[in-house]
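Protein modeling request. Please complete all fields; requests missing the sequence field cannot be processed.
Requester role: graduate student
Desired output: 3D structure, token encoding
Chains: 1
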Amino acid sequence: MSRRTSAALLTALGCAALAVLTWVLAFRTGAGHAADAAALDGFARLQSTHASLLGQQIAQLFDPVPYALLAGVVVVVALITRGPRGAIAVAAILVIPNAVTQQLKVLTAEDRVPGSFTSTLHVDPVSWPSGHSTAAMAFVLCAVIASPAGARRVVALAGALFAAAVAYSVVLLGWHFPSDALGGFAVAGAGASLGIAALSAAEGERAPGRRPWAVPAAAALALAVLGALLARVAVELSGNGQRAAFLAGAGAIVAFGMMLAAGAAAGLSRPAATTAPPSRWRRATG
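Delivered output (286 residues):
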């Protein structure tokens, strides 16, 4: 078994463990649930701003019909860039984690009381993990897999921020707790890691794509801007505990999303190049 295959399998196991840990903390510990509800409070304060309309538009991109269209596009791109095996892996990642999430929603259904500020909201008991967050992260990781090697890390950075925006949106709108979004990311990460392990085993060890120097700088800038925006929201919250919970929840979502996308980009080998057979002249002179 190659190192890339082993690493991908370990990542899948880690994502599964994180999903279980997130559920235990949010559902079975008082401190975890209180922090989850406090973070939801912080996001809910944005409902009276323009962020609510933007969040609605972002979240709707991962309703079933738009998601099916996005999935079709990324499968076609994977077929072009990585061949039939890549397209099959991407199709499986787009479908299976979402199916697993729907089953987990039923198995873990439980009424959870939101925080004080969101007392007028009622998060559906069938909410963990978030289906929109699962779909968004699965799509982003498939986009990373389908990308040409040279562009993979740029796609990973942009995709991670996009997936975080989807997760923020479903929490802001009161559809989910932050733990639901983290659970969705974990399910998608586990499924994508298994797909990457299968691809790595089939393709073997090849040189990874080049690493554009500008990507770390862009990531640092994006995180700085995002941090400033989150800090601005946190100032409006009541009490240090609520501020800390909001910043921890928001930070965990974007950090986990970036780790998954960066890990996928680093864990992929360069697909085999298609080479033409040698000409008669080359055979004669070679």
